[in-house]
Amino acid sequence: MLEISNLEVVYNDVILVLRGLSIPVPDGEVVALLGSNGAGKTTTARAVTGLLGVHEGDVTKGSITWKGQDITHAPPASIVKSGISQVMEGRRCFGELTVDENLATGAFTNRANQKESYDRVMELFPRLAERRDQLAGYMSGGEQQMLAIGRALMSGPELLIMDEPSLGLAPLLVQQVRDVIKEINATGTSILLIEQNAMMALSIANTGYIMENGKIVMDGDAQKLLADDDVKEFYLGLHGNDEDDEDAGRKSFKDVKHYKRKKKWAS
Amino acid sequence: MLFFAQATALATFTGAITRAIALGCIYAVVALGFVIVFKATQVLNFAHGGIAMAGALFMSIMVNDAGFPFLPFGNPFVNGEDRPGVMVWILLLAIAMAITAGLAMVLERVAIRPMVGQPLFSLAIITLGIEVAISAFNRDAVNTPNARSLEFPWGTNFWEILGANVNHSYLVAVLAAAFSFGVVFFFYRSRLGVAMRAVAFDQEAAMAQGINVGRVFQIAWAIGGALACLGAVVYSMAPFGPQGAVSSDLHPVLAFRALPVIILGGLDSVTGALIGGLVIGSAEVLAGQYLSGYTSFLGVGYQAIVPYVIMLGVLLVRPYGLFGTPEIRRV
Ligand SMILES: Nc1ncnc2c1ncn2[C@@H]1O[C@H](COP(=O)(O)OP(=O)(O)O)[C@@H](O)[C@H]1O
Ligand SMILES: [Mg+2]
Fold this sequence. Notes:
The complex is a heterodimer.
Chain A: E1 2-11, E2 15-25, E3 30-34, H1 41-49, E4 57-66, E5 69-70, H2 76-81, E6 84-87, H3 99-106, H4 114-124, H5 126-130, H6 141-153, E7 159-163, H7 171-186, E8 190-195, H8 198-204, E9 207-212, E10 215-221, H9 222-227, H10 229-239, H11 245-266
Parallel strand pairs in A: 3-8, 3-9, 6-7, 7-8
Antiparallel strand pairs in A: 1-2, 1-4, 4-5, 9-10
Helix pairs in contact in A: 3-6, 10-11
Chain B: H1 2-41, H2 48-63, H3 86-112, H4 120-142, E1 148-149, E2 158-161, E3 164-167, H5 168-187, H6 191-201, H7 203-208, H8 213-235, E4 245-246, H9 250-265, H10 270-290, H11 306-317
Antiparallel strand pairs in B: 1-4, 2-3
The structure holds adenosine-5'-diphosphate (ADP) and magnesium ion (MG).
Adenosine-5'-diphosphate binds at residues 11-12, 15, 17, 35, 37-43, 55 of chain A.
């Protein structure tokens, strides 16, 4: 069980980005964390995996506990060792390394079970097996996403944090990613699924959290959120305009305001 | 008569080309250490020459003074009268390389690590500071009355090939380069080496895999230090170094001759270090051999500037070197 409680994160000592964020990720579940650009989703992922320091960020309040242990200020290596791994936003494959070498880096803290993890990844992604010796930098976006997920599985995680795994992928590939996430979860791995594609994320999640300006503004059962009119309007509006990015941006902004107003009225 | 002229020309060429390859190999070894550190840590290590020089001094302390660096007791392998045998000498070189690796690790830990996250320019300036400090130490150490011989077991022996004198040390230089690049080749495919390349490509993504970046930095510096020591020792061999001894003349060459090599090959390219070393070494030797008749107006020793002229030429066409990575990867 991962427990993010009342988390506050500040960048460069002045930019307050997370303002009292609380999210529990129960064992074995898929938790969707939704929200538009700049809401603080990636910052949340960084906080849990100990990578805030790279960005001059710091947890100033609240805590993150994992299996009962406080990991709020733990170094990334010990967090990975304790069973949390991350598929980073933008895939971040090591372009100058081969597929096999990329996977090997994922097993850096998991030497004992490297072979088992490797076989599992190859089974999950037959495509990677075909390209073992190819440089990651020359692979397509979809293949790189598979590699990024495979790499994160190499440490044998109990909790997998995935930061926008469907970003920039064609609809067919998004479906594949969705299926893979379900398959990974079916083997008992909990998943914190960060997405802007709310429909995809909620369709496989147990619980959903919607985040805005560093705070949770709505949460609940995934199916209920999926049926919720506000959520539907906001997100369908956002994703109905995929071809025209600029238009989508304007529309979402308007919808966010609309959504906030309703929310205030509701509470 | 004609035959005789051709024979001399062939002998001259054989002598020059073997010497060129040997010097190229030595430059390549020195450059390789620099490249490994830069590739992994993004730090321009201006102390590389100073560390290399210190490594050669460590070797001389063992083989010339029959002692151990930093330690008060004598060296049982050396008896002060006969030169050490090849095997003993290589063992001592391995020890010198290990000590230099240790020195580089200490420097990294004490002076560089606390500055991680600072602009790369500041880090480069710090290495310049280290360079000045080590040079002062090196100068004091070298300026002892007795010449600090490195007791090369093969001394100035040579083979006569096609009428040219080909020193045994030329072969040693080639072997040293083969060893260095071979070790790096296999290291880069090992678990730690793959981690180092991952760190070089994307530090944050490497951290996300649980790779300890600090440890990777330290290992890169250790390898850089060991290679620096090896490069300085082979550069001290006759006929390159004066009488196979460490002298204070060695230092500026080590510090500045590696520069055109890495700029030519690319700061972060292992292949570049090898090709750059060979090109610069050859250019220097062959220019000295064949152009001197036409360029006497430039005076003696002009061949020393040939590498820099080549470097400038390459910079104009490919600012990141022949094999370097064009884009800046860090955000
Ligand atoms: N390194 C940083 N320094 C300062 N501000 C940052 C940094 N990284 C992100 N931010 C800011 O924090 C906010 C949340 O960013 P992020 O967590 O990336 O959001 P999301 O992943 O939801 O799009 C944004 O306003 C962004 O500009
Ligand atoms: Mg993000």
